[in-house]
Amino acid sequence: DAGITQSPRHKVTETGTPVTLRCHQTENHRYMYWYRQDPGHGLRLIHYSYGVKDTDKGEVSDGYSVSRSKTEDFLLTLESATSSQTSVYFCAISEPARSAYEQYFGPGTRLTVT
Amino acid sequence: AQSVTQPDIHITVSEGASLELRCNYSYGATPYLFWYVQSPGQGLQLLLKYFSGDTLVQGIKGFEAEFKRSQSSFNLRKPSVHWSDAAEYFCAVGKGGSQGNLIFGKGTKLSVKP
């Protein structure tokens, strides 16, 4: 299994509070991704990173920001959480030297915004 | 725009029976295609991938998929289903470009009855 951990694994927070989710990898893969998974929607890309300090928006980036200050960590921040951001969040990694599309996923973080 | 359609939301098969999960994609060029599996409470695991060449690709856990350009399909098959195959299956297509962005279908949930 790819060395990907996500923290926290579960979180309940209140509307309007900031939340940061962490993805940590030990594979030294260059690319990292944040997805959200909602019933009936599959997985949708929020943001991705193609290197340290290099990030870009995905399909559903509104209300989210990311940072990557070192290869192994990719942080997803909800500046002011809303109930519509209740979801399961997955981090993924890939190595473009092999194939950027061949992605390995973390175990997920279940976030509930009340 | 690229898209992926999985027509079946939920499929139930008997253990030992054959399985085919459908996937149709929309993409202008030769697509990069993937099948992922998600067991309950887990992250996604790559089952198999198609980049080019032989249109019948073999994956892990005894799964295979066939790329049919004329039908814009990439259906997943298994000749004999085991109870442990019960999971949700996602088809995905590479969005193009070098960043590895994937477009996922909404998933097909597989139930296996004894």
Task: Summarize the helices and strands and which ones pair or pack.
The complex is a heterodimer of chains A (114) and B (114).
Chain A: E1 4-7, E2 10-13, E3 19-25, E4 31-38, E5 42-51, E6 54-57, E7 64-70, E8 73-78, E9 87-95, E10 99-105, E11 109-113
Parallel strand pairs in A: 2-11
Antiparallel strand pairs in A: 1-3, 3-8, 4-5, 4-9, 5-6, 7-8, 9-10, 9-11
Chain B: E1 3-5, E2 10-14, E3 19-21, E4 24-26, E5 33-38, E6 44-50, E7 56-58, E8 64-68, E9 73-78, E10 87-94, E11 102-104, E12 108-113
Parallel strand pairs in B: 2-12
Antiparallel strand pairs in B: 1-4, 3-9, 5-6, 5-10, 7-8, 8-9, 10-11, 10-12
Summarize this, please?
The complex is a heterodimer of chains A (114) and B (114). Chain A has 114 residues and is an all-beta fold. Chain A has no helices and 11 strands.
Structure write-up:
Chain A is an all-beta fold and 114 residues long. Helix content of chain A is 0%, strand content 62%. In chain A, the strands form 2 sheets. In chain A, strands 2, 4, 5, 6, 9, 10 and 11 form a 7-stranded mixed beta sheet that branches. The model of chain A has no long low-confidence stretch (mean pLDDT 93). Chain B is mainly β. In chain B, the strands form 3 sheets. In chain B, strands 2, 5, 6, 10, 11 and 12 form a 6-stranded mixed beta sheet that branches. In chain B, strands 3-9-8-7 form a 4-stranded antiparallel beta sheet, with no helix packed on it. Chain B has a two-stranded antiparallel ribbon with strand order 1-4.
